[in-house]
Amino acid sequence: MTLTKLCNWRALALAWPAVASAQWLDFAQLDKSAESTTLVLVRALKELAPESAPPPLLSASGTRWSTGEAASLGYTQRFATTDGPHRLVFGGGASVNRYRSRDPQTTDRGESGLALRAQAELSGPALAGSYYTLLQASTFRRSWFATAQYAPDAQRFGVELSRYHETGWQATSAVLRVSVVPRWFVRIGLQRATGETRPFFGVAYNGF
Description:
Largest sheet: 12 strands, antiparallel, barrel
Radius of gyration: 17 Å
Helix content: under 10%
Strand order of the largest sheet: 1-2-3-4-5-6-7-8-9-10-11-12
Number of helices: 1
Distance between the termini: 35 Å
Mean pLDDT: 89
């Protein structure tokens, strides 16, 4: 790691609590491995939805790996279809996207454009705890993301399995999530990508 990159990471680590705890942010997650870096920021637009309805989401995300990087800024309108203990929420919207190749041996230098997106969320109680699942898909570079999470009741930890896919990059992650203070989590896991399995470390803030 170069000195410039090290300074950038230290600056981000110092600014992270202030950024994630800001009133305009409801979710933030940063994961880092030897192969990739991923950042996700989400704001729930509660002022645009009735109290009983799931609010629309404004999100920004970016992923950087050894041969490329991708970023998006999107809006998703959500609709609840069930009111019981197991809640199913569908969503649809649009995003602005950018991809850039970092592979010097390819002629595919990058692309950008608008895309449609859709998602489905299912959450509720399960086995002395709670679960949350999310499936997202976008028309940009045929990308999709899926995750399943479980957290035991009255415990400070949870587990997560996720899969990220887009043209030129796919990764599967298994995560142990530990609560350090309310709403804050340390993430430790393994990521399978480019034919190798690597450890990674992350931090997350969840204000939902």
